[in-house]
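Minutes, project huddle
Topic: does the predicted pose make sense with pyridoxal-5'-phosphate bound?
PN asked that the exact inputs be recorded in the minutes so nobody has to dig through chat later. Recorded below.
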Amino acid sequence: DEARQAYTARNPKSLTRHHEACEAMPGGNTRTTLHNSPFPLTVVRGEGCRLWDADGHEYIDVLGEYTAGIYGHSHPVIRAAIDRALNHGWNYGGRNANEAKLAKLVADRMPSIDLVRFTNSGTEGNVMALAGARVYAQRKGRTKATKVMVFHGGYHGGVLYFVSGGSPVNVPYEYIVAPYNDVEGTRALLAKHGEELFAVLLEPMQGSHGCLPGDIEFLKMVREESRARGITMIFDEVMTSRLSPGGLQEKTGVIPDMTTLGKYIGGGMSFGAFGGRRDIMELFDPTKPDHLPHAGTFNNNALTMAAGAAGYGEVYTPAAAKELNERGEKIRQRLNAICQREKVAFQFSGIGSMMTAHATSRPIKTAADIASGSQDAKELFFFDMMAAGIWIARRGFVALNIMIGDSEGDRFVAVVEEFVTARKALL
Ligand code: PLP
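Predicted holo structure (tokens), as shared on screen:
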């Protein structure tokens, strides 16, 4: 309560902005994730790896727009690409030069992707991948295959959300919700429902659900069982594609049939994509008489295509991906070493540049381990981080950006160390 009161007292202008926002948006909000109690802060500026709020406080941004902000703020290469695009107009009603360039970069980097199509968001990418997989199964004569296997804790967008039994606004497929990282439990469900499933959709590391990495053994089992049963395996790499030059699929060696993408690949502009094996993606080939329609006014929007091609082609190169994820790995190791030294029930799970804080000492392997964490301790962590100038998600989520250097990394570690030692009695 004390931390919450201090937050309110420190942010009077953000509070006023919040009241204004409430006049025209439900709860003052247009993006549920960005709500936090007592009210979210308003950001007025970003530069490099820093953000400034309406009350003038400066932050090191370790949230990185939930992975979309991998380039930091106003990266000069991306900015120049957007400037060029702006100078040539941006609503053509026609193809533009950058879309094939970005598609080629994606297909070259992602092992599972022969062909790709763009969307406006990761959510849309997943919706289209499922639609494609469904028709693919039908055309292969798998007429009973009408269901999708997803995993408890999986997040694939606002309409594909599987925490606590799914969301009432989910796309109305029939879902079989399997236990993530449970090899035998999932194998049994695949055996029981194999005939009915046209797709299995999963994140190779669950991102929103607390950076829960998929065990290799589990991912391999899903790969083998889905292949044997003719079920399309879709990796949602909307967040995890950043974790190596060719995504988490390259790092784990588990190659799905289809992959969905989003976030930073559009250079920080609205973006999503779905792609995969040629024979599946050719369903969308408009030169074929029975092709599937996939429209979308902004699928190839000029600013995203320009920003994406510059960002993915010139900035987040394979070498940059290695460097960022090595930096993240080192930071997470340092944070966990501090937690262990202080013997607190606090830790950071994740891979490379993505991590999440958990107020528990149980190793993070399953949904139950995540649920065992103290929510109060995590909320306190959020308030303490924000008060110390570290911009982080309410749920303790961190996605590093390439503008973070040694001094900002050290500062982040030092602030967490202060938290762990000052709040030791509560952890
Ligand atoms: N899939 C995953 C794994 C995500 O983390 C997200 C967003 O956080 C999405 C899909 C949805 O992407 P978007 O918010 O662009 O619709």
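Observations noted during the meeting:
- DSSP finds 14 helices and 16 strands in the chain.
- Residues 155 and 161 are 5 Å apart (CA to CA).
No decisions taken; revisit at the next huddle.
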